[in-house]
What does this fold into?
Amino acid sequence: MSAGAIRLENVTLGYERRPAVHHLSGVVEAGAGLAVCGPNGAGKSTLLKALAGLLPPLGGRIVYDGLALRDIAYLPQSAEIDHAFPIDVLDFVSMGAMRRIGLFGRVGAGERTRIASALAAVGLEGFEERAIGTLSGGQMQRVLFARLLVEDCPVILLDEPFGAIDARTIDDLVKIIARWREEGRTVVAVLHEHDLARRAFPQALLLAREPIFWGATQEALSEAHLAQASRMVEAFDREAEDCRRDEAPHAA
Ligand SMILES: Nc1ncnc2c1ncn2[C@@H]1O[C@H](COP(=O)(O)OP(=O)(O)OP(=O)(O)O)[C@@H](O)[C@H]1O
It folds into this structure.
């Protein structure tokens, strides 16, 4: 395993001891571009939270080679972000510098330059004083990418970064991901858009509560593998329903 890699060893993840992802082993090499795909409920977001260090495994372990958790930037699903929080674009993007300067640290000239160039890179110059609550979905996603640019981490985790945004914004953000990869950063993204996964990520993990395939994207997202993933998640959900019925002896 090379420096900067993340190794998963027979990892089980879940909530309140209920497993959501089982038997996951593999290595995210430093500099990898990995798409995590699979049907709804497959465990994709759960895996990303675990990689970000927010959800300790129920079993197995995740080993970070030469990486501290502060080296990992994490973009949660849009629904988990408080868009109504009263903060303007400049302050929101500046929060990306917090790991370096601390919560109450002074934003010096170097950080100001970094923040300005991040806003320029996502095409949001002139939006500095806009409250984030007034932005469109696409503009908000650009702001979130600007914050990631300021965070400047070697590992970047993106949970559904392209959900419900326009094609032009998607193109611009895909270019930023390509730039991160050229710079040797590791990018792991949960994606429902398989065409984008094929276009922007050489590797894919197809997940259906357990791994179906982890390797070249074209092969991971073959029709046969996608059909297998759907069947497995449906079967898992049916079993879960049966369990719930068994656990409710007083139900009518
Ligand atoms: N906080 C939580 N508490 C309890 N169960 C959870 C929690 N978050 C997710 N789950 C359950 O874990 C399983 C996997 O969910 P997860 O969100 O990881 O799937 P996903 O593949 O990201 O789905 P989607 O594509 O719909 O976003 C689901 O059965 C879900 O209900």
Remarks:
- Confidence is low (pLDDT under 50) at residues 242-252.
